From TrEMBL:
The lineage of its organism: Bacteria, Candidatus Dojkabacteria. This is alanine--tRNA ligase. It comes from Candidatus Dojkabacteria bacterium. CDD domains: AlaRS_core. PANTHER family: ALANINE--TRNA LIGASE, CYTOPLASMIC, ALANYL-TRNA SYNTHETASE. InterPro entries: aa-tRNA-synth_II/BPL/LPL, Ala-tRNA-lgiase_IIc, Ala-tRNA-ligase_IIc_anticod-bd, Ala-tRNA-synth_IIc_core, Ala-tRNA-synth_IIc_N, Ala-tRNA_ligase, Thr/Ala-tRNA-synth_IIc_edit, tRNA_SAD. Keywords: Aminoacyl-tRNA synthetase, ATP-binding, Ligase, Nucleotide-binding, Protein biosynthesis, RNA-binding, tRNA-binding. The keyword Ligase applies. SUPFAM superfamilies: Class II aaRS and biotin synthetases (SSF55681), Putative anticodon-binding domain of alanyl-tRNA synthetase (AlaRS) (SSF101353), ThrRS/AlaRS common domain (SSF55186). GO terms for cellular component: cytosol. Belongs to the class-II aminoacyl-tRNA synthetase family. GO terms for molecular function: alanine-tRNA ligase activity; aminoacyl-tRNA deacylase activity; ATP binding; tRNA binding. It comes from the Bacteria.
Amino acid sequence: MTKVDIAIYQRNKVVTRDEDLVLVEPEHGLRFRRKGVFFINILQESLMKKMSYNEIREIYLDYMKQHDHSFIPSASLVPDNDPTVLYVNAGMFPLVPFLMGESHPNGTRLANSQRCIRTIDIDEVGDISHLTSFEMLGNWSLNDYFKKEAIELTVDLFVNRYGFDINNIYASVFEGNENSPEDDVSIQVWKEIFRSYGIEASAGPGERIQKLGMDENWWELAGGGPCGPCSEIFYDTGKELCSDKCDVSCSCGKYIELGNNVFMEYLKEGESYKPLGRFNVDFGGGLDRLAMISQQAESVWETDKYLPILKKVKELSQVEVVESERIIIDHLKAASWIVMDGVIPGRTEREYILRRLIRRAIRHGRNLGMTKSFVGEIVDICIDQFMDIYPQLDEDREKIVEVIVSEETKFNETIEKGLHEFERWFDKTFEGKKEYIFDNSDGFTFSMYETFGFPLEMSLEELKNRNVRFDEAQVRENHLREYEKHQEKSRTATKGLFKGGLADTSEESKKLHTATHLLLQALYRVVGSHVFQKGSNITPERLRLDFPNDTKLTPEQIQKVEDLVNEQIDKKLPVSFVEMSKDEAMKLVQYAAFEDRYGEIVKVYTIGTADDPYSIEICNGPHVDNTSELRRFKIIKQENVGAGIKRIKAILE
């Protein structure tokens, strides 16, 4: 059947020019039947509703609820008590214990929309679809349904609820290797789905179902754990193939990944794989990309949430550089989300990523001719655009803008230092020489970039201003060489930090986690009832706790806190938990940070007896069974980490 076969489509009434066609109404959507074969309704382009960012999320969550999934709130970008991950980078991150077999209080079918930061993609930002900050729509089956129902749910959602054209849908599956066979189950499921829409699909190179290897279609946690093959779903944008090797994994923009079903049926231990004994599903779909397809936009940057921000960037720009415009939007949006979750720019790990995002945005602002302060205005628009989803952005607006603008001021001062350093280098390098020739063989431009945030383009401009002769291609090649060496070092140093992974559940970390609860209660009693947890981080060596307080603790207060914690250790208090509704739990606890992260059913940990509890907190664990397992508690450092926020680091001696 072709578009000519349909004369009218209006309010479920279809008039055709082919008397052999019969309109049928299956469970989802309208289809035509001829000789027992189903055909998707044509004129898909005109039937596809252009949905807003918020509508797409709402439809998704309603759809999952109709299929018996319980909603769980978005977690903070900053993982609680997990040193293995700098930022939450996937919707599944808070669910790792339940994927391993722990019973989830909300059941075996879950769904949410999770804020994510994925800095591994930072160098891809600037194209049509990559972001470092995004929302991931996710649903999970914890040993409930598996491949067939998971893929069918995804296709039904995309085609019959979002209205995406099935003729533009492509799939990838795992091709198999020595650890796991080809995923023939998923291949068969996809073939049956396509056939139900009148499409005879084959599996192979360039086909509608494409087989890919471990790099593309296998998922596992850093360091081992549950893992398995995945099946991705793509949308053909209609662009020409970039080459005869172009497939769904190509980054040319012809195919846009809409989502990915991960089938966790294996357990990786060391370098070996064995059956997990459970059949979990983890689906993730990028909300920004879904909006791009739904709104038929050229890129995610032309969708409803981003257009007002893009307009402001263009207003402040002197020239047009599309890549720089997109990087500024992405990085400052990411920065506003991160600052909202309590992080401030700094020199180590999580804080350094925030600093890098802000400074990279500023450098690209210079590419657009923005020589004056500009980040505050753009951050304001970012907050305006996302505060309907995340009200805390507006509540913390003043703090967020202040932190990011302060970093801009510091960076501009650093740039000035860089100009002075450039002048010093120039005088030293070319002193007494008649000709100024430069090849960048020593990686000078990258050194300026790394130390002073000097973009390569600024170094080239300064060289030209001083009449230095150079081959720009050679200079860029040597700059790229140094950059790639630096990237390799960074990948090695942070291996396992960006993929996500299991929270550290070693015995030492369990002890320090329990000690964190003891510390928080001690601070509440000694410092005041305004104390609550703003953030925490635990390694096997020490604990770190952030809490609101205007001044640092006095030596006397520190001693009182230490004594109170050690007193509970000496009392050999039991540690236990019960599951209850969030409303019930909120009546029991004295403080509950991050209330919006909790599902309807939560764990409540008690240190002490039911008749005489020392501490009662909402927490996912894990903890020791008794405080007698802890050694002597000692505070080793306290510091300021922002306006009205103090940080304590402590150990068990």
